[in-house]
Amino acid sequence: MGGRIKRLSAEEAAISILPVLQDQRDITRDVDKAPASVVRVLKHILLLFSPAYIGLYLIIALCRIRYPFQLEWMEGGVLEHVRRILSGEQLYVRPSLDFITFLYTPFYYYLSAAVSKATGFGFFPLRLVSLLSSLASLLFIFLIVKRETASRFAAALAAGLFAATFHISGAWFDIGRVDMLFVALLLPCIYLIRFKESAYSLMLAGLLVSLSFLTKQLALFISLPMAVYCLLVHRTRSLYFIGAVAGVFGISTVLFTYLNDGWYLYYIFSSPRRLETLKNMLTYYWTHDLFFALPIACFLSLWYLVKRDIRSPKHRFFYTAIGIGMIGVPWLSRFKHGSYLNVPMPAYAFISILFGIAIHDLFQWCSTLSRKRKTFAEITTCCALLAQFSILMYDPFPQIPGKNDLAAGRKIVDTLAQMEGEVFIPYHGYLASLAGKRSYAHAMAVDDFLRTTGEPEIAQFVCETEQALREGAFSAVILDSDPLMTGWLRERLQHYAVATRPVFEDDSVFWPVTGLRTRPQLIYMLR
């Protein structure tokens, strides 16, 4: 009887303690779930940055795509290049006061001219080409990372990071300049070389990089590491890539040189080579443009390339070769006179690709750790990524011209239209064109010419300018507040008097939203 009572008491005790043990297991499970929930929340927050930055850029681009005046101080000069093409005039001509070409290859100008025939002449077709090019760049960054990682999460973050570099690139993605088309043609080339091995794909990649060269000369140097990779990996098939690049380069050079009486070689090869080197910019590119702006992305990119368990030697070789081109070559341009924040755009695109691939591999590595270490590593990674995206935050409103800017632009065009005779506006010749007058050589093109040409040619140009001013070829000369590029002209305005009133009474209107901060300031009237 006593033993039975003892046995029943033990069963009752076991039954009574089961709910307590169950509660403890539930508490432990909830504690384990809590950090995992934090990681999921952080990943969702991270994922929001991609559409946020892309959407913000698109809003800015659409708000200013039809703005009828230049967003950047050389954009009007590009518009005048397109105007010359549409009027059947040559681009690469002897430098003169009438016209001097910017130091770029012509594909962007001709493509914009073709679009202009469908949309009408103005800044809209130029910006449309750049806007579509930026969307294509975002798409191929997404596709490259998606193909490497099979992760939409990593691919979305890579595309979002590139969109986030819009501001540190000088707000340049959608303006009427060559750079975004130049980058957009390089990225599908990278995709084809990495993931396709057929002769047709390599030839298509060669044609794309050739079009990129015909947009901006730097692509030719970026293609050299690509050619080395193709030669060592694809062997004889590499001849399709190398042959396409060499063929288009050779044929286009001979053709444009012949059609432009030899001046194509001067503008595309000779003059850029003579631009002076700015020694203070030798390290600026690596410190300010890259590491200070993208510290986490640069660290992850380097980590990915040097880590032991990278997918294969071929994989490492590919991204190292492409990195030499996409990051190293822009550096050679960044410390040249006249460079700006747009120069690192190819580097930003490439770093965004490595950033996305590295994110995927980093989370894969975290999954191999113990439960506590995994959670800590994932939270730390998410926080670092959030910090990188936060560093790139910017105020969008200064990037969009206001109603007062629009009114000021229309007013100066009306003022020019009412002036008798021709008006010389070296920084903004397109304004004279809008007023129904002729445009003349752009100040930046003149400055490049004076810096890279011999004394006889400079003396001839100065003599031509002095004669035009002496004979009263212009009823007025309008100069900007920035005298750096027009000192040669100010010294020769003896026959002109400064008007008593400046061009703009309001000091806050009609400034470009990016690039050199300059606007029409002083009117010199013929005495």
Pattern of helices and strands: HHHHHHHHHHHHHHHHEHHHEHEE
Query: How is the main sheet built?
Result: 4 strands, mixed
Low-pLDDT regions: 1-8
| Mean pLDDT over the full residue set | 90
Round the Cα radius of gyration to an integer and report it: 30 Å
The portion of residues forming beta strands comes to under 5%
Shape: globular
Count of discrete domains: 2
Helix/strand-derived category reads: mainly alpha
Helical proportion? 55-70%
Strand line-up of the largest beta sheet = 1-2-4-3
Describe this structure in words.
It contains 20 helices and four strands. It is mainly alpha-helical. The chain has a four-stranded mixed β-sheet, with no helix packed on it. Helix 4 packs antiparallel against helix 5, helix 7 (199-213) packs antiparallel against helix 8 (218-233) and helix 13 runs antiparallel to helix 14 (345-366).
